[in-house]
Design a protein that fits this description.
Layout: E1 3-8, H1 12-23, E2 28-34, H2 37-47, E3 51-55, H3 63-73, E4 77-82, H4 88-96, E5 100-103, H5 108-119, H6 127-137, H7 155-165, H8 170-177, H9 181-195, H10 200-209
Parallel strand pairs: 1-2, 1-3, 3-4, 4-5
Helix pairs in contact: 2-3, 3-4, 7-9, 7-10, 8-9
GO biological process, one term: phosphorelay signal transduction system
GO molecular function: DNA binding
Domain HTH luxR-type: 146-211
């Protein structure tokens, strides 16, 4: 079954280039393109895609507001595009529910892989990016508290959340906790469910905003 994608960017050449690369993949189907945030929201409502590739800076309605609406209204995963590494708007995008972000000069293979990763329900924050992101994110005031405090988690779930916040993959968490990957997946699922979070990106945010994880610790 193909991954259905909407590509939204106000630069026609950029938008068309991304759409062409993705549509050339046998397992990806670009169902619509959009030139601004309002068009992106309308396209998601009309086509019900799996992934919205969304530029942060666009006219009429920016990517942040579009991401907030899309994430609130649907199960579509949002992958943000930005010109700068750790763009100020990236933090707002993640709080809005985005599952990750890409630089606009991303390599072809990395773009395709990113869409597949996000469509599969994972977040797109490599450990190195997570570290830089968290160092900046933790300095910023929280827009809202987590949906529930980490106290609702069991000891193992809290440990899992802390390791997620450090950027570890499921395999690495399993090794650190000396359990199977299946057990880790169960812990991760419980963490997201109990805290009312969409994905691992928001889990990282919740861990730092709640004080469970501390930069440099």
């Amino acid at each position: 079954m193909s991954v259905r994608v909407v590509v939204a960017d106000d630069q026609e050449l950029v938008r068309g280039g991304f759409a062409m690369i993705l549509d050339a993949q046998p397992d990806i189907d670009v169902v619509a393109e959009a030139g601004d945030g309002a068009e992106a929201v309308a396209a998601v409502r009309e086509h019900s895609p799996d992934v919205l590739l969304l530029d942060i800076r666009m006219p009429r309605m920016d990517g942040i507001e579009a991401a907030r609406i899309v994430c609130a209204e649907s199960g579509c995963r949002v992958l943000m595009l930005t010109t700068f590494d750790l763009d100020d708007y990236v933090f707002d995008a993640l709080r809005a529910g985005a599952s990750g972000f890409l630089l606009k000069d991303v390599r072809r293979d990395d773009l395709v892989n990113a869409v597949r990763v996000v469509a599969a329900g994972e977040s797109l924050l490599a450990p190195a990016v997570t570290g830089k992101l968290i160092a900046e994110f933790a300095k910023r005031p929280a827009a809202r508290p987590p949906a529930a405090a980490p106290e609702v988690l069991t000891a193992r779930e809290r440990e899992t959340l802390l390791l997620i916040a450090r950027g570890l993959s499921n395999a690495e968490i399993a090794q650190a906790m000396v359990v199977s990957e299946h057990t880790v997946k169960t812990h991760v699922s419980n963490v997201l469910s109990k805290l009312g979070l969409r994905d691992r990106v928001q889990a990282v945010i919740a861990a730092y905003e709640s004080g469970l994880a501390v930069p440099g610790a």
